[in-house]
Automatic annotation (TrEMBL):
Record NCBIfam families: PRK04036.1-1, PRK04036.1-3, PRK04036.1-5
Biased composition (Low complexity): 131-143
Sequence similarity: Belongs to the DNA polymerase delta/II small subunit family.
Protein name according to UniProt: DNA polymerase II small subunit
Recorded superkingdom: Archaea
GO molecular function: DNA binding; DNA-directed DNA polymerase activity; single-stranded DNA 3'-5' DNA exonuclease activity
GO BP term, pick one: DNA catabolic process
Gene Ontology CC: DNA polymerase complex
Reaction catalyzed: Exonucleolytic cleavage in the 3'- to 5'-direction to yield nucleoside 5'-phosphates; DNA(n) + a 2'-deoxyribonucleoside 5'-triphosphate = DNA(n+1) + diphosphate
Encoding gene, per UniProt annotation: polB
Keywords (A to Z) from UniProt: DNA replication, DNA-binding, DNA-directed DNA polymerase, Exonuclease, Hydrolase, Multifunctional enzyme, Nuclease, Nucleotidyltransferase, Transferase
Residues spanning the signal sequence: none
Amino acid sequence: MERKDIIRAVMEKEYQISPEAVELIYSSNSPEDLLKYILSTVNDSVIVIGVEDIDIEGFAAFSAGESPSDKINALVPEERKILSGVSILSSRSGNPSSESDSFLVPDPLSEPVLSSEPDVITAAPDPSIKPSQDSVPDSSVQDMVLDKAYESAPDTPDASNTPDTPNIPDTLDVQSGNVLSDEDSASNLASDSLSSAKAASPTFSSHSSLAVNRSASSFFGQGNSLSSFPSNRSFRTEPSSSASERGIFSGSRDEYKHYPGRNPVTVVSDITGHSTCVGEYMQFVQYFRDRYSRLSEIIRGRINARPIESLKRRSFRRGGDGGSEEISIIGMVSDISSTTNGHKILSLEDPTGSFSVLIRNSDKELFELASKIILDEVIGVTGSITNDGSLMLATKLIQPDVPNNVQRRTGSHGKAVLISDVHVGSSQFMEDSWLDFLDFLKGESDSEDMRELAASVRYLVVAGDIVDGIGIYPDQEMELDILDVYEQYRKAAEYFREIPEHIRVIISPGNHDAVRQAEPQPALPESIQAYFPENFVFVGNPAFLELDGVRLLIYHGRSIDDLVATVPGVSYQEPAGAVLEMLKCRHLAPTYGSRVSISPEKKDYFIIDPVPDIIHTGHVHTLGVQRYKNVLLVNSGTWQGQTEFQKRVNLVPVPARVPIVDLEDFDVKILAFD
């Protein structure tokens, strides 16, 4: 047994393991038996298996009386598979309805390491994650459960006696060249267009909606077999006390980071110190399963959805109005294509399979909504199924979105100043404007009104790019006044030390800062934090905070680039519109593998759940403020003038504009310091 086999077996059991523990197991006389013994006896509360969790004496005593293989053989079949290195995601060989694997599954251990830090596996994961010890149900039992779920539905007539479903209004000619003259050939599109696997590789290549094809295994592992769908292990959701507190922000409040004082801060969610990603294939699978599980849970409260696998097993009766029975599914968008007649086809996946959905351009409202759907978004679809059961004609699309009855939190007082993209070190850094801003915070403005406003400021929140960094874009060094990144941070710290102590400063990183480029990003390293005052709060990107009870979600906003490129009507001039699309998706970076490099952590830190009071973004150097269903969306501007690089990409910044939010009524004032 090699070291990589030990890591793989532990990950498939949904634990992590320290390098020291790997070495201890590898160097033992019987590493395979020792590993099986550890996995069968490890305490339920353990998340990262360390040396202290390995009971060598107990293993020796156990081996003397009963062989470890006897204990392993007593486990249920699925547990034996996990311990022997067989993935819980593999297809059932005995299920005639399962699709055969027509693709090559990449070797999990051949993937390049995503993280630049080889020892990140030793970092303690989020304590809210508790490994499940539930065994995967036997596939035959799951078949019975699936059938039971629909046995209350009226018996459907034999498909041969069912009148034909009306044909699609126009001939569908997909841009790939497949001519579709009737409903049956349209249905073939559903299977033909899903022919290649989405590479589980940390090489993040760009893709377009017409050029990318992803197979039925692209998100959820090989085969998307039904056997993994009901598994508590595969679909573990975080415990929560209420619907509004579920997801990554749930769990005991004792696990949060608290910064007490006159202006208290609670860090509810942050990747800092919890990254376990090493770029393994299974981690990509876990990441997408977590994303699907939690977003589909939100949608499932609004529609009664079926697993996609069930669509391939049953025919559907015609409704009372002569049309086909309407059903609903929830899936992750794996492909978007258009026909020559202007219709749109979405390929959806859930952990049980994949299905194609047609949105007709004759339904103007639905088609407009579908035009804003992007790759990897989780949506619900309601519609009717064609006679051969391979294509859905959509009548309704459901996004996770924010509920209409979301309540605004009240009771806090004072102001929060939201800024981003300071870019200290750049030759275009607007130092004079910045010094005027510092004078305002210190209460040294000429205006009495400004001094009174400054006295009410309790928080200053910085959403990334404190400094300009080094080597971020071509020829950047030609536009720098400070060529050393550490000197840039020292200079930034000098500026920030002038901020009065009664203002709590919170700093999150961006793509110009000295942290890993893959998101979610941890907080700035302690060596850099040491330059700044001790009462500053450093968090990762993104981070979910409570400012004296007000919920604030900070995200630097790099995914705005993706949304501008793919969603009609979204532009850099109105960045709050991009944040609005994130909120409708309930995800800060929906498309995976485009401009934003995303680290596949055990859980998806980009899901927006619960709904915050304020979402604060930056990155694009333009100012935007918008309200949506009692959520305030603020994209702060910059303190950097237009660079040569920005001129080449036609980006016109809005510098030295400062949004100030009243924490009691969320009223926003924009101050100008230019």
